[in-house]
Amino acid sequence: MLIFNQQYYLGNSLLTICGWTVAYLTIPQEFRIEIMNSELVLYTSKSILAQVLLNLCSNAIKYNDKQIGELSISAFENKNTWEIHVKDNGPGISKENQAKVFDLFTTLGVPDRYNKKGTGIGLSTVQRLVQKLNGSIKIESEPENGCCFYVSIGK
Fold first, then answer.
1. Is the pTM of this model over 0.90?
2. Ordered mean pLDDT values, 10 residues apiece, the chain (155 residues)
3. Which end of the chain, N or C, is surrounded by fewer C-beta atoms within 10 Å?
4. 95 CB contacts (<8 Å, ≥6 apart)?
């Protein structure tokens, strides 16, 4: 179980933060969300982490094109960082578009499951928020095989 420092998180676990986050999302009935975590105390900003997870989870759900959507959130501790992985089984993003997704106002022009196009603000904002936590974000993806966003937050 991932436990957050009470000073910043008032004792909330990753499950609690994710529960709060997904409560603001429209989740299709055929969507599965798995939260995997370990015994870990994470000292960071609750509001920033919640906003990062809200955006990454929202995108994973909105842009998923599979019959049964899957989203997994996991966290790990390294010597100097905490790592949070947000992985989905959606359509994926080609190599040439991966760097573009963090550019402000840049979209890939693909409508979501509700036939709406993005603004190009979300992932750029996520990147800036993660940087405020002395961290970084990267993406690994192959078309048709989903995406995994790797968020690294400095200790």
1. no
2. 41 63 85 77 78 94 94 89 94 94 93 91 96 95 95 90
3. N
4. none
